[in-house]
Amino acid sequence: MTSLTQDSLKLEYFLEDEYRWCPLKIIGSRFGSKEIIANVTKLDELPDVFNGCYLYSQETCVWFYDKIKKDDVRIVHGSILDDGISNY
Q1: Cα 73 to Cα 14: distance, rounded to the nearest angstrom
Q2: Are 62 and 42 in contact, with CB atoms under 8 Å apart?
Q3: Cα dihedral sign for 53, 58, 76, 79?
């Protein structure tokens, strides 16, 4: 069986135009300039399209907000812990 970390999964968004993966945050809700990041423990919880922001450039710390498709998201390696029993 695979166990998830207590924290939210670390996700990445695929930038199709540049063929690269970027860190992704899922926006749960926004109140003016305050935003609450959604806690995601498995990809099945995500709708087909959702609001998110991805880190476009780590050097300049530029984040872009967009409607994200679930198909363009992957789990970052290390977000899921294998307890040694699973065989997937």
Answers
A1: 6
A2: no
A3: negative
- Look-up of token digits 């998201």: 73
pLDDT value, residue 57? 93
Task: Report whether pLDDT(40) > 50.
Answer: yes
Q: Which residue has the higher pLDDT, 31 or 86?
A: 31
Number of H helices, E strands in the chain: 0, 8
How much is the pTM?
0.77
Place of tokens 């995601």: 40
Q: Extract the tokens encoding 63.
A: 């984040």
